[in-house]
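Hi support team,

I'm filing this because I wasn't sure whether my run with pyridoxal-5'-phosphate finished correctly. The job status page said complete, but I'd like someone to confirm that the output block is well-formed before I use it downstream. Pasting the exact inputs I used:
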Amino acid sequence: MSQINWQSLGFDAYRTRTLVTARWKDGKWSDISESEDFAFHLDPFTCVFHYAFSCFEGLKAFTQKDGKIVIFRPFENAHRLQRTAGFLGLPAPSDSMFIEMCERCVKSNMEFLAPYGHDASLYLRPLLLGAQPKMQLTPPDEAIFAVMCAPAGPYYGANMRSFSGVIPLNYDRAAPKGSGSYKVGANYAATFRPYQIAHEQGYSELLYLNSKTHEYVDEFGSSNFFGIKGNTYVTPLSDSVLPSITNKSLQEIAVDLGMKVEKRPVRLEELSEFEEAGGCGTAVVITPMSHIDVKEVLEEEAVKTVYRYLPDGEVGPVCAKLYKTITSIQKGEIEDIHGWCHEIR
Ligand code: PLP
Ligand code: COI
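And here is everything the job wrote out:
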């Protein structure tokens, strides 16, 4: 039995009991297997290592108030993975295979799922990679689809306090018409260096503008952007941002709460018109922004513009309400009117 301190859990690559795997070879998927051996045993020529033939998903399982175990919107993740796999030329698991593997991962790692009453969940990380040793730049004939999990607490170490962000004008996240809207591993590799610099300067998040003109807000390195203007939830319309399932859910929740929703291009200067701003995603849930700095050169001290929303640490009322509502649905504390929680039986 694991001895997890649910209260102090962060967000990390925690080793659990079982990995759930299927392999693609000769045009078909193998049977699904559950293993306590987490190693993939791959040839060093395997294309995932050289050419980043890799994509992933992130979703969470919860213990609800009445004891039910649920996964939040797993069909959405299955569909997004299928879309990303198509972009990479990798075979994609069907909906039923994706769901079965996620369910088996939760069931065989139950001791890592927090009981009801904690600010913790079981984070599922489905991973799809090209597993064929090859030099040619063509999609591989072999692939591995694996679902792993980790007990997860707040991404930044604390939920519902505000954090600072920076827009680094000398870095872009995704090329115009490139891979920005797909959940490919390579998108994240490109952000590690600016993240390191930003973290050293005390910023928690990087906010990227559209790469072509730097006129519009795209998204954070790990989450979508939203801003609150009066009674309106505003989020960028851009073909370079990941279609976030949390953002999609928050838009529906905002409507349920009587707010207006606008999904449209958001000009950089409009950041000064929001009363609240934040990031949203599975791992972070909602990250309210205390302020967002704009820097011409991230490495240098000079700050070009500051968009200030809140004193450091404080949270605005709309972010607090949205956070409370989505997490209450996930924990089964309020009615799941949209049918987002998929029960594991
Ligand atoms: N944008 C990026 C770049 C992300 O990595 C994530 C995390 O998955 C999101 C947005 C949020 O997506 P979702 O809400 O589906 O987790
Ligand atoms: C998620 O929220 O599921 C993510 O994949 C974000 C991750 C890059 C930290």
